[in-house]
Specification:
The chain is of the alpha/beta class. It contains 14 helices and 13 strands. It has a domain of 210 residues: Rossmann fold, CATH 3.40.50. It comes from Chlorella sorokiniana.
């Protein structure tokens, strides 16, 4: 995609990209690709269907172009307006608020929608709650690393063995022009001033707030511009105005810092250091939910595998952790599905909750 310095992004002239219509298109990130590539909500939808939910009926999918940055989501007529219209239509059809289920980036998307696009009054009347699976709340270092490393395997000098050699340059161009990736970099409000990237040649260090500098110093100018335009939309720890369930894995090695090694001096180009997380998202990003209501509830969060916090001023937040469960594996986890079903039943009260996935 082509983006201006202000973060306005569009497809190149002569190319139009839009979501493929239909419920099944929301079951994966690449609908129509054979072999199940990018399958996301499919297993969950299959299980819910067996329990009585109807695909495209009281179980609906919100379709949006996930490549785009938040500035595009929030514009008049953008995907947030479309989501609001879809939720209002569902509430009118079924006479009860919607329970939203999101995966990974979708959690940031819905959280931003609920906090900053609609009023608290609207949320109270239209949203029963939100169930987040592997929410990338405060970003991940994998996003800027993908932009900088491009087609290379980040832990070697060689090309990525999963991508044909003739397509490596195309992959680099694709990653550097995907404007949602800079938005998925670590959020400064959560990661603070700690160095996340260090260049061994120059000695330069980059914190979350300086990530645009690393992108620009790595010749990813467009990505740096989009990061600067997207930073205002990054996670700042504010609680959404709806009851929330946060489900995520822990205890899986996850990149927490990067050292850029001198070119040609070692077999590796990047030395990656690992810590706790779900293999894609580090723990501080996953557990943003812990702090949403901790202050109002008189606690400082929890390290337990299961917790709930609430206050008289904010809806409750429920956190469920699954040791050893990877980022994408959560959609296949029986334990996570049991918690999703429990949440849906509680959000639906005496009846079954209408659900919307994205």
């Amino acid at each position: 995609m082509e983006c201006t310095h202000g973060g306005d992004c569009r497809s190149p002239a002569g190319i139009e990209v839009r979501p493929k219509p239909g419920f099944e298109s929301g079951m994966g990130v690449a609908p129509g690709i054979p072999g199940g590539f990018g399958k996301t909500f499919g297993p969950l939808a299959d299980a819910l269907e067996q329990l009585g939910w109807s695909r495209g009926g009281d179980m609906r999918a919100h379709l949006y172009d996930w490549r785009r940055p938040p500035a595009d989501w929030v514009r008049p007529g953008g995907s947030f307006d479309q989501l609001q219209n879809e939720i209002e239509a569902a509430v009118a059809d079924f006479g009860r608020p919607v329970a939203a289920i999101s995966l990974s980036l979708g959690s940031l998307y819905f959280g931003l929608f609920a906090r900053r696009h609609v009023s608290v009054d609207w949320a109270e009347h239209h949203l029963a709650g939100h169930i987040s699976l592997s929410g990338t709340w405060a970003g991940s270092l994998w996003a800027p690393l993908a932009i900088v490393a491009g087609g290379q395997d980040p832990e070697s000098q060689g090309l990525n063995p999963l991508v044909p050699a003739l397509q490596q340059d195309s992959l680099r161009s694709l990653l550097r022009s995907t404007p949602v990736l800079p938005y998925l970099a670590p959020a400064p409000a959560v990661f603070g001033d700690q160095p996340l990237v260090q260049d061994a040649t120059s000695g330069q260090q980059y914190s979350a707030a300086q990530m645009a500098g690393w992108l620009r110093d790595s010749s990813a100018q467009q990505a740096a511009d989009v990061w600067e335009a997207s930073e205002a939309w990054m996670e700042r720890g504010g609680a959404p105005p709806v009851e929330s369930w946060c489900l995520f894995g822990t205890g899986v090695n996850t990149v927490t810092s990067i050292e850029v090694l001198p070119p040609g001096k070692a077999e590796q180009r990047y030395r990656l250091r690992y810590g706790d997380g779900d293999g894609t998202v580090p723990l501080p990003s996953l557990q943003v939910c812990d702090g949403w209501h901790a202050g109002a509830a008189g606690t400082a969060g929890t390290a337990d595998s299961s917790s709930s916090t609430s206050s008289s001023r904010q809806p409750a937040t429920h956190v469920r952790r699954y040791p050893g469960l990877g980022h994408g594996d959560i959609i296949h986890s029986a334990a996570a599905f049991a918690d999703v079903l429990d949440a849906l039943m509680k959000l639906g009260g005496a009846g079954r909750a209408h659900s919307q996935a994205f």
